[in-house]
User: What shape does this take?
Amino acid sequence: MMPPVAKTLLRLGSRLGSTAQNALEVARFGGFDTDEDASPCEVVTEQRVYRLRHYFPGEGGGPVVLLVPPLMITAEVYDISSRVSAVRVLRDLGVDPWVVDFGAPEREPGGLERTVSDHVLAVSDAVDRIREATGRDVHLAGYSQGGMFVYQAAAYRRSEGIASVVTFGSPADTSVGLPFGLPSWLASEGVERIPDALLGGFAVPGWVTRLGFQLLSPVKSVRSRVDFILQLHDRERLAPRERQRRFLEREGWVSWPGPALAEFIRQFIQHNRMLTGGFLIGDRLVTLADITCPVLTFVGEVDEIAAPPMVRGIRRAAPRAQVYEASLRAGHFGLVVGSLAIARTWPAVAAWARWRDGEQELPGIVVPVAGDEEAASAGLPGGPAGYGLQLAMGIGTSAARSAYRTASRAVHGTRQLGGEAAQNLPRLARLERIQSDTRMSMGLLLDEQARRRPDEVFFLYQGRGHTHDAAKRRIDAVVRGLIHIGVRRGDAVGVLMGTRPTALALVAALNRLGAVAVLLRPDGDPAAEARLGQVTRVVADPEHAAAAAKLEGVSGFLLGGAGRGERGPLMDMEAIDPDRVEPPGWYRPNPGRAGDLAFVVFRGDGDQLRASRITNRRWALSAFGTASSASLSSSDTVYSLTPLQHPSALLMSLGGAVAGGARLALASAHRGPGGSGGSAPQQEYDPETFWDEARRYGVTVASYTWTLLRELVNAPPDPAERHHAVRLFIGSGMPRNLWRRVEERFAPARVLEFYASTEGESVLVNLSGKKPGSLGRPLPGSAEVRLARYDLECGRLAEGPDGFAVACEPGEIGMLLARVRLSAIGSAARPVRGVFRPEDAWTITGDLFRRDDGGDFWLVGRDTELIRTADGIVPPGPIRDALGDLPYVDAVAVYGIPVGDTELAAAAVSLRSKGQAEDAVKPVDLSEALLRVEPGLRPAIVRIVDEIPVTAGRRLRTAPLRDEGVPAAGDGRAFYRDKAGAYRPLTDAARRRLLKAPPAREAR
Assistant: This one.
């Protein structure tokens, strides 16, 4: 009998010997020879891009399933071994399996030149061939990116010949998950910065993607290798999993063609076209909304590559399809490879196909889902680039993720302003290089976009898209029309139109010609504005032709298709044949220099009417600044709600879209009430139209001015609000209370508030959005700004003992000054020299601000809005903000009521609920709200009104309220401030006291 020690040593020696022998075999041959054969198949056809395999050809019959692999994995993923074979399971359960084999691109003629379109068209071609061979519609199934091909092919075919779509871990919305912890800005800006030539100029080797997948779960990868080594002595235990190990560690990976990589990242990562639609397959525009057949999507609950929200995006992307879901506790590979897939996934696919053919019940793990169901958050930081970079580049480790998180924390404090500006460095760098004689204009940037992307959509209006090339041809035609009527470079031409494509084309044409577009406001006083703008010609649309014809000393012209207005006696420029207009010798397209006057816009009314003159450089400053601050790209669609005559539309919506390469959508409008000055009816939007067009156009950024979003916030909930794609509302002048309501209702969208002085080159932007009501800080690249003490009563800068202006301390109200380049001081409005140093030059913006301890600027009011009471000067801003914070207040207007030689500070308030004012507003509420305002700056009167009048741009109009004077007493809708500072209902006695004009204070 052998001693126990000897037995142990013998077993150990035998184990070591087996381990050494097996290790040598693995080292020499890459693995064990398991004698397993692939499932039988025949190649039915071999085309340029693919081979079509038919498995178990002699056993035919049953529902037909076509399996599509992703680009970087071979078709053997569906038949790794006899133990792990999807096609065998399907065949055993009565389904006829077919597989698209794209081969190894690096070994195929022209394989590394393939595009996404090539693969999608190959899948569509395979569907046709299978239908012809079997006489049956096809259940189209795909794994990972192969599932994306399946979605695209089904949409391309509009579901013709497709019984159903089945996908496994295939994202339809790449905006909700980002593996590796990559910062979110890398998705929207980082990918955009990769040149097409570089992005599509190389193929990603198979070993790179393999390494990336392994490093995504390093612990699991290491554990698998350790288990393999520890069991290396037991060949029988390793043999059943050997082919799966070899597939995942070496044999299953192929190269990703460069052009396909570029197209995939551009279309579906950068632009997220799987969700929004509008991607091209061949020469056809395709959207997943065209899928009408049933969809079954398998979701891996612990999938780190295609997180569940990314996969569940198909619910929103394909609203016409009935979507079903099977959710498994599996990772990305586990959905299709391994014991769980063999036991759950593939039997469910077979049962699904047979259920669709009416042969059995719906499988238990499959449940129908609705498109409007909430999807749980992926819990991953960042945006869309990660998935594409993960699959395409295959890079990233736990250490890399940690490094990215560390870097993100390091730049967190400056990323909102400095970081985003750095990401848009080319735009801002170009802006910095602009000198007064540099060629720069709207027309020039439009031409650049047309050269780069002639066939891509530039703007959308009333459901139609217009390409850059079409827009350029229309603009050039209008240029020739303008030349025909005698317009030359430098001429001031009035534009009297509502927001419509013709107005956009006319403004661009004037700029391309080098003329000055004077934007007359339809709701203003066109005659006064024409005189102030020194125009001798005005071009109107049909709706405003009558108003144009009444202008004295101005030649009127008509431009635009037939509208609701009368065309009248004006010369119709549409009758001019541009082909017969020979451009004169002096004409050069886009001759404008940065220092040239380009646009004139207006603000105020009556005695306060002012013209703001905007140079090409000033327009470019706002255009590039908006594009940078809003991170606009070709993935975005900017929806302009504002009238074109408002600086917000001209400088931000239109300017930002042009500079950022985004699409511009012009809001459709219906006719509203007439404006002031006898002008034509205003054009308005309604909330239902907003959401209808936001969905139709794929709006990501919507513009506003002043209180324009009040109707949207006050409207009943619209079903289209759910899962909306709007990420930003951009504009200027939004009151603080409305700002908060917008962000609360339309989260995660936020407000990006700008201040852009039309009198200088100063731009402020609240980039973080953390302080509603604040105008933020100066935009990089814009003019330097400073706050200086200002003598409100004398209307001039206060001076220190040395004669220089005195800079304001934090919290102190002062005048905003914008630095002026010495070369531009001759055209600056309200210039001042020697302000802080002997040779410096600044312009007085006319806007009063205060700056908080954090460096953010808060608008207090314009110098023209100041209320000159007997007790001193009262700015409107603090009153407006304090009353606006009351939860039942909708809007607040602050104004002065003339009483003798002084004014009474008054505030008019409209309420969210239109019930009885005396029941809603309590005097104690007013007193408590206004405690935050300095006693000397509080209003003497607070009144409740049904509505506050507004302009076409939705700026509150105080003139009608001022004209009404002190309101009547006794109706519970007016309150006055008593001697103790408390607010009480206005009485007749109090009203008489208020109307007694106290002596005005003498100016110091």
Confidence is low (pLDDT under 50) at residues 179-185, 374-423, 670-682. Residues 4-29 form the longest helix (26 residues). The two ends are 121 Å apart (CA to CA). DSSP finds 32 helices and 43 strands in the chain.
